[in-house]
Design goal:
The chain contains 1 helix and 4 strands; from the N terminus they run E-E-E-H-E. With 69 residues, the chain is of the alpha+beta class. The chain has a domain of 42 residues.
Length: 69
């Protein structure tokens, strides 16, 4: 069964959904972009495709910092 992969990426401060080389959006929030990607994946599954949704987000600015205390 063919697989279709959707990505959710933050580009220049907005969220976009990717399918191959195509980009859809922009979406103002991650939640809206994920909902759009999952909705598209659901439709592709009905048509017989396996689907994957990948969220590509940057780590928070303080995620790598450790408490010095």
């Amino acid at each position: 069964m063919p697989t279709v992969e959707y990505t959710v990426d933050q580009i220049d401060g907005v969220w976009m959904v990717g399918l191959g080389e195509k980009r859809f959006g922009p979406y103002s929030t991650l939640d809206k972009a994920v909902a759009a990607a999952v909705g598209a994946a659901d439709k592709a599954e009905v048509q017989g495709y396996e689907t994957v949704v990948t969220i590509n987000s940057k780590p928070a600015a303080d995620a790598g910092k450790q408490n010095a205390a």
